[in-house]
Design brief:
The complex is a heterodimer.
Chain A: E1 5-7, H1 11-23, E2 28-33, H2 40-44, E3 47-52, H3 63-72, E4 77-79, H4 89-97, E5 101-102, H5 107-114, H6 116-125, H7 141-151, E6 155-163, E7 166-171, H8 174-192, E8 197-201, E9 206-216, E10 220-232, E11 235-241, H9 248-264, E12 268-278, E13 283-290, H10 297-304, H11 308-316, E14 333-340, E15 342-343, E16 349-350, E17 353-354, E18 357-359, E19 366-370, E20 377-378, E21 385-393, H12 396-409, E22 411-413, H13 419-426, H14 429-433, H15 440-448
Parallel strand pairs in A: 1-2, 1-4, 2-3, 4-5
Antiparallel strand pairs in A: 6-7, 6-8, 9-10, 9-12, 10-11, 11-14, 12-13, 14-21, 15-16, 17-20, 18-22, 19-21
Helix pairs in contact in A: 4-5, 7-8, 12-13
Chain B: E1 3-7, E2 12-15, E3 31-32, E4 37-43, E5 46-51, E6 56-61, E7 67-69, E8 74-79
Antiparallel strand pairs in B: 1-8, 2-4, 2-7, 3-6, 4-5, 6-8
């Protein structure tokens, strides 16, 4: 049972969780920073308590303050939302040690999936493909050629000490590998003081496709996939389901792989298994598992009709999964547009401010998950997400039309917003065709400048 | 000598140091020129440099490291 839920988060996800708790008849307490005292989540919650000063490190990321606040209001369960402390295994342990339910996975699952190497090993044990690569640094040219032949071309030569895209060379064939490997090693030594390089399959047209899973510690089901390839600076901009890139067979293989991995670790609660999909080779590879509810979860809710936040609370209070895989059906298509307080015409400079006028879209198939109200003062201390506009319709072409209609109705004044950017993207032929990869939006911006 | 206040260009969190372990950009008694970085303001997870808009000697800071600031709030006093 859960008799009082503590929400250790802010913004639209805190609002989302208050609503889910209310629908289950669970009183919800929002723990908020001093800057969020007059937020929508606080207004809607049955109770609110301050957890610290504005800066997240002193409030939402301060595990001791959060725990003290949760105890002080007599909560017997805590939902961490996304970001902040949601994937901190030590925090989940502290919640459980205090006798509260952590509404999420076990600390062990968080720790396992938070460790890149351990997560990759878990995927391999579960028979889930990972990006083929050399297991470690390349010692000499001959072994490099042997390993590369096994991985397949094109192949990436990556500096072990590199990161963020630096120190990467792409070889198309064996001859290029022979030429580029010594160069890459020399460059790595010059740039990073370490000549170690490793090899990894290069995916020219990579798509980010992720599978939503729900588990109760024993059984695991999937709720199909979301495609999130439209990204800027590794931040998702538009997400959609189903992925326009998968046929039924590929979808089944991908979803089965996600369930296999989650089952193999006895996964509990909502989670997302992320894959890189090679659109040319039509192959998928495990990247990581996010052990939390995700920003884009409403897309899945729209196509399945299943309330993920509510299911998390049900599982949190000890219930078994209510649904079997055969009960989960997909209907229609959905897209989510992230509306940020950023100015697309000024290099996406974020700007806080006071909402002077607000008019949100409505009508059939339209959902807005937001933190906004008229007169709300958007604080400068947190991320710039203002709202998520989620649109459902019977098929993808109808979603595109409904999305444009709803975006046209979205009026917010007092802060800049990315609404106009979404409208421009929806007019783009390749976006309309679903023909985009994770680099598409960056190239699109570069071409516009 | 005239004194001058450097104002925060943006609302957010003010930092006197480039990173938690580093020393401050400038401290009391330092001589600064126009355009020198005197701190950072974090706005919605983006860091923006704050530049001195007047040359002179730093007299005192009016805002602590990691304190919340408003746009237009005085950060430090320069005498020059």
């Amino acid at each position: 049972m859960i008799s009082k839920l503590f929400i250790a988060n802010r913004g639209e996800i805190a609002v989302r969780l208050v609503r889910a708790a209310q629908e289950l008849g669970i009183p919800a307490v929002v723990g908020h920073s001093s800057a969020d005292a007059d937020s929508l989540a606080v207004r809607l919650a049955s109770e609110a308590v301050e957890i610290g000063p504005p800066h997240p490190t002193k409030s939402y990321l301060n595990a001791d303050s959060v725990m003290a606040a949760a105890r002080s209001v007599g909560a017997d369960a805590l939902h961490p939302g996304y970001g902040f402390l949601s994937e901190n295994a030590a925090f989940a342990e502290a919640v459980e040690a205090a006798g509260m339910v952590f509404v999420g996975p076990t600390p062990q699952a968080i720790r396992l999936m938070g460790d890149k190497a351990a997560a990759r090993a878990a995927a391999q044990r579960a028979g889930v493909p990972t990006v083929p690569g050399s297991d470690g640094v390349i010692s000499d040219l001959e072994s490099a050629r042997r390993i590369a032949a096994g991985i397949g071309f094109p192949i990436m030569i990556k500096a072990s000490a590199g990161g963020g895209g630096r120190g990467i060379r792409v070889a198309e064939n064996d001859a290029e590998l022979l030429k580029l490997l010594p160069m890459a090693q020399a460059e790595a030594r010059a740039a990073f003081g370490d000549h170690g390089v490793y090899l990894e399959r290069f995916v020219r047209r990579a798509k980010h496709i992720e599978v939503q899973v729900l588990g109760d510690g024993t059984d695991v089901i999937h709720l199909f996939e979301r495609e999130c390839s439209l990204q800027r600076r590794r931040q998702k901009v538009i997400e959609e389901a189903p992925s326009p890139s998968l046929d039924g067979q590929a979808r089944a293989a991908l979803c089965d792989a996600a369930v296999r991995l989650a089952k193999s670790v006895g996964y509990r609660s909502a989670g997302t298994v992320e894959f890189l999909y090679d659109a040319d080779a039509r192959q998928f590879f495990f990247i990581e598992m996010n052990t939390r509810i995700q920003v884009e979860h409403p897309v899945t809710e729209m196509i399945t009709g299943i309330d993920l936040a509510r299911e998390m609370l049900r599982i949190g209070r000890g219930e078994r999964l209510r649904l079997r895989q055969a009960d989960v059906a997909m209907r229609g298509a959905a897209m989510e547009f992230r509306i940020n307080a950023e100015d697309p015409d000024r290099n996406f400079a974020p700007a806080p401010g006071t909402i002077t006028s607000l008019s949100l879209p409505g009508g059939p198939g339209v959902r807005v998950d937001s933190l906004l109200f008229d007169g709300y003062r958007v604080p400068p201390f947190y991320d710039s997400l203002l709202a998520k506009l989620i649109v459902w319709d019977e098929d993808r072409p109808a979603v595109l039309a409904r999305g444009a209609r709803a975006l046209g109705e979205f009026k917010v004044e007092g802060v800049p917003s990315t609404v106009s950017l979404h409208l421009r993207m929806l007019a783009d032929p390749q976006v309309r065709a679903g023909d985009y990869d994770t680099g598409y939006l960056e190239r699109w911006f570069a071409a516009k400048q | 000598m005239a004194t001058h206040e450097v104002l925060s260009p943006l609302p957010g969190t003010f930092y006197r140091k480039p990173s938690p372990d580093a020393g401050p950009f400038v401290k009391d008694g330092d001589v600064v020129g126009v355009g020198d970085v005197i701190g950072l303001v974090e706005v919605m997870k983006m860091f923006n440099e704050v530049h001195a808009d007047s040359a002179g000697t730093v007299v005192r800071f009016l805002v602590d490291d990691e304190a919340p600031v408003e746009a237009g709030q005085a950060l430090l006093v320069i005498e020059g």
